[in-house]
Amino acid sequence: MAKTSLALSNLRAAVIVIVVAFHSSLAYLASAPTLHTGFDQAPYKWQAFPIVDTHHWLGFDIFCAWQDVSLMSLMFLLSGLFVSTSLIRKGAARYAGDRLWRIGLPFTLAVVFLSPLSYYPAYFIRSANPSVAGFWNEWLTLPFWPAGPEWFLWQLLAFNLLAAALYALWPGAFRHLGRLGEWSGANPRRFFAFLVAASALAYVPLAFHFSPWVWGALGPLPLQLSRPTHYLVFFTAGLSLGAYGFDRGLLACDGLLARHWRAWLVVAVSSFLAWAGVTSLTFPNWGEAGAVVRLAAGLAFPIACASGGLLLLAGCLRFAASVRLRILDSLSENAYSIYLIHYVFVVWLQYALLDSDLVVALKPISVLAGSLVTSWAISLAFNRLIAGPPVVPLKRALARISH
Predict the structure, then answer these.
(1) What mean pLDDT value characterizes the chain?
(2) 67/243 Cα distance (integer angstroms)
(3) Looking at residue 390, what is its pLDDT?
(4) CA quadruple 121, 122, 128, 133: dihedral positive or negative?
(5) How many whole angstroms separate alpha carbon 254 and alpha carbon 323?
(6) SS3 of 32, please?
(7) Domain locations along the chain
(8) Is the pLDDT of residue 24 over 80?
(9) pLDDT score at 400
(10) Element (H or E) spanning 216, and its range?
(11) pLDDT band at residue 397, thresholds of 50, 70 and 90?
């Protein structure tokens, strides 16, 4: 395996652990909302905080804020890396069908079956007389269908289909994107400046209008109203780097980005603290904060996103390119399945620990360990089942459909 491919594989393993840790910590934030509204009452904050424990720690707020700023944008960038090569190899129509099969179908199944299972504890602790029938009645009368963490999948699918449409209408666009990847990837500071500028243009107007925190939904398709174009910028940036090629430019394991990881650490920490500081001045009501403060918070967000993401990428290229461990390979191979199913176990374990006397630091660690191991084991068992002799015909049929 090439060095960059190995580094990205290890990064994928690290990212899924961080994602599960993020969700495992949400019940223990010092800023978590109180249970002052019912399950069927707006603003439906139980979507982000199904369980709210009485044990809190500010450190979890800092950890989750950092991940929300750095990790989500990086995930869209990483998702765009392999789009160009896949489109060129498969063509637009086959690629779009593959994405619908690989992303659209799992998203649909997860939303229909796993989301109600994940959110039942949220209903249970917010209802005076909870019952399964009562849950279904309230669930089906909600003005939306909660998707949970799977919101990432439908937006990723939309970006993939946009890329397929672009390739079908203008195949030469990907040559230009490759040149953009070459131009920006040759100098990480240039790439950083380009990413920040494009993201600021995409994010700041929406943040001003909607605020950074408001979500909307069309049925089972939730959307953080300030960020869709911001995420599209990062996805396109990843697409341009992938079109230029791996093992060179920004993605080279011995390149400027990897060699200067210490500088990116300083920039990332400084920009995150600046964003956190200026954003805190917009609380508790974004609309009532001064225009200058809102502008500063809006501009600080793309800087923190880009620097935090580049730090994680630089550290991975610098330190993970020569690390080959079976456990990391397994985590990477099963990362998608873990992402799909882990939230069920996260919420139920948080619920199970509500009355526990564990110190606050041990609760999210216990939730992380239990949900990660369980969802990982289920993914391994499913893959083994699919690879087994009894279902070889099914596997072949699925392969024919996906191709």
Answers:
(1) 92
(2) 27
(3) 43
(4) negative
(5) 15
(6) coil
(7) 3-402
(8) yes
(9) 46
(10) strand 215-218
(11) very low
- For residue 13, is pLDDT > 80? yes
Q: Which two tokens stand for residue 277?
A: 């500081």
Give the residue from 370, 342, 376 showing the smallest Cα distance to 358.
Answer: 370
C-alpha torsion sign, points 25, 30, 32, 37? positive
Beta bridge partners of 223: 216
Are the C-beta atoms of 216 and 44 separated by less than 8 Å?
no
State the residue for tokens 């949970």. 148
Place of tokens 């990086």: 74
Please state the pTM of the whole predicted model. Answer: 0.93
Q: CA-to-CA distance for 200 and 270, rounded, in angstroms?
A: 18
CA-to-CA separations, 390 to 144, 263, 379, 384, 385, in angstroms, rounded? 40, 54, 18, 11, 8
Cα 37 → chain centroid: 28
User: What are the contacts of 266-270 at 24+ separation with CB within 8 A?
Assistant: 267/307, 267/311, 268/70, 268/304, 268/307, 268/308, 268/310, 268/311
Interatomic CA distance for residues 4 and 320, integer angstroms: 9
In angstroms, the CA 346 to CA 359 distance is: 18
Least Cα distance to 339 among 6, 4, 22, 26 occurs for 22
Q: What percent of the chain has pLDDT over 90?
A: 80
Q: What is the distance between the alpha carbons of residues 123 and 50, in angstroms, rounded to a whole number?
A: 8
What is the rounded CA–CA span in Å between residue 118 and residue 97? 29
Q: Does residue 174 have a pLDDT over 70?
A: yes
